[in-house]
Amino acid sequence: MLVTVDKQYVYEFDGYSLNIARRSLFRDGKRVELSPRVFDVLCILVENAGELVTKDEILSRVWADATVEDGNVNRTVSTLRQKLGKMADGGQFVETVPRYGYRFVAEVSMASTTTKPEESAAPRITEAHSMRAFAVAAVVLIICFTAAAAYFVLRDRGAKVRTSSKNTLVRLTNGETDDMVPSFTNDGRIRFARIVDKVAYSYTMAADGSGAAREVSIAGLKRGLWSPDGKLVMYHRDGSDTQLYLANSDGSGERQLPFKAGNSSWSRDSKSILFQQFLATERGTKNSDIFQFTIANNELNPIVENAAFDGDPSLSTDGKTLLFVSERDGNIEIYKKDLTTGIETRLTNSPGHDSYPSFSPDGTQIVFNSDREQENTDVYIMNADGSGLRKLTDLPTNEFVTSDPWSADGTTLLVVSNATGADNIYKYEVELFDMTALTGVKSDAFAPSVSADGKALVYCVGVSDSNSEIRLFDLESQNDRLITSVATGGCTARISPDGRQVLFTDFANGNTDVFVINPDGSGRRQLTIDGSKDSTPSWSPDGALIVFVANRGGDLQRTSLWLMRADGTYQREIYRGEGSSLEPFWSSATDQIFFSNDEIGGRTGNFEVFAISPDGQQKRRVTESPRFDVSPSVSPDGKRVAFVSNFDGNSEVYVSNTDGTGRLRITRDKAEDTSPSWSADGLQLFFTSDRTGKRAIYRASLN
């Protein structure tokens, strides 16, 4: 049980003086500034020095009127440790008792406040002393700001947010109160919870942080959790801390919900709510499990049950996989559960506290929080199978995400940080791989293709509305030269495996046909002459054959795969599916032709990547996505395929294993990223992007 001592006393420990009544902390006569919640936690620990204080006890005292998770306690204690520093013997003031709570271990004595030690110890500030202190503070401020400027873009009250760069925290709120649990609305605004007088209220603001105001769409709503489609909201009312309600977003159709919920999230289809709930066990203790409430039929079902703590639930976009944290193996780690098979898999293994895992919208990566490296919390990201761990934030303060932190297009995270004292909301535009614009090539460059030896790049340049150029760029010497001019259309070009010829398409005599030319621009020859459209050719590994697509056969709306010899003879169809086949790529390592086709789903535009043998007999599906996957390019070792997908609303470059597993998004930008091509060593991808407003060729480093 917590002890509360008469606050007319000053607590003294290891050079510190804590006056709870005056809410002040001094060390050796100098004031130590603490945020309100950090101060409250210090008071509880000092009042109960030497005794275990559980996380639940701290939550009930410091966050009595707010629904938060025990990760808030971890982060606040971490901040307190940073503020206090080390004891004289080098130890920490606050000891962590794993799985239970904390203990204040410094020796504490008490003195009456009538002596007012902090007033007698604090120097009297004269005008001259004040000006000198201001000057010193200004120098310190400049130094601190310079050190932090590379990481933070801060915003003064009422000012517009500065333009951000990738992997940078951009501050959106700067209140002196805590702002928490931010998420994007489906119209691009941001909802969050603001703590006012220890009570959490729902607020909204614009995406740039302006116009923050309390949510008033439903009369009496205190704190709400809106569905992804914005049509429903689960909420607490003013005056009620336990009873939950569900209503339409305008307040109509309100009904009480038959459960109490801890950390909660919606399914991406807005049809169910997932939440953790503490229930009494047979031993009389409480344990948290995870439940799912289905809106349509009011069904309430457990989906994770274990004798240990389970919490922080979050579903994948397709609703097939659940992410959660559990203490079942002695430490809080991240797990995933296949809801079809029921198989649960542990994803993390660290001595720290991991929390709030959330799939990126495309399901390829998981963002979460952890204090595994230092005692402060940072944001991490990993692949969906737990591999590829990367640290996104790396500051001495606490940075963390909460439920549903992603923008719909998967480019931006909403992060909470206490870098300036109170918890404030920041945005973080994610770019996991180094992206470099290729210099030396012509402006308005697109459709890059790397030679087999990795020394040259052929690409297209838009010259006018009716004409393009095919050019060759030497990646070693940086020399760039014209190969030939073509009519603007589907400009594509590929160097032969031996580097002696360039395969391309051009619009000639009323049709698009396949041509070949020497790299110096000589020896141009037309290989196909047909009344149909022949396009996107690709060399066989030995350069003896060429695969291309054509809309021959009477159906001009459907293209099929065709094969011919390198001299243009023996043209024959090798695959005609129910849909259109596009952009074949002949893998040198697997001797398979990768292409995209929209036959899945009855030709609804849902193109997927397939692989087929050169004789057209053995076909297999590689990708599976609700949106299109196109433009395959296979790595030189034949193990991975790069392609373009618009899963999150715009074209991005992805990579997967050639069997379709291990799907991973490479580019994260609001621009259109297209036409991937591998470097010879398989460590880089060249692609086209208009992220600066004009098409250019970029290089992504994958290592």
Portion in helices = under 10%
CATH homologous superfamily annotation of the domain at 442-701: TolB, C-terminal domain
Number of strands: 57
Question: Order of strands across the biggest sheet?
Answer: 4-3-2-1-8
| CATH fold-level topology of the domain at 442-701 | Neuraminidase
Radius of gyration: 31 Å
Q: Into which percentage range does the β-strand content fall?
A: 35-45%
Supply the number of helical segments: 5
Give me the secondary-structure category: mainly beta
Uncertain parts: 114-164
CATH architecture of the domain at 442-701: 6 Propeller
Report mean pLDDT, rounded to a whole number: 86
Kindly describe this structure.
By secondary structure, the protein is mainly beta. Among the domains are: 9-121, Orthogonal Bundle (Arc Repressor Mutant, subunit A); 442-701, Neuraminidase (6 Propeller), CATH 2.120.10. Strands 4-3-2-1-8 form a five-stranded antiparallel sheet. Strands 9-10-33-32-31 form a five-stranded mixed sheet, with no helix packed on it. α1 (36-47) crosses α3 (71-84). The chain is elongated and about 100 Å long. The two termini are 53 Å apart. The relative contact order is 0.07.
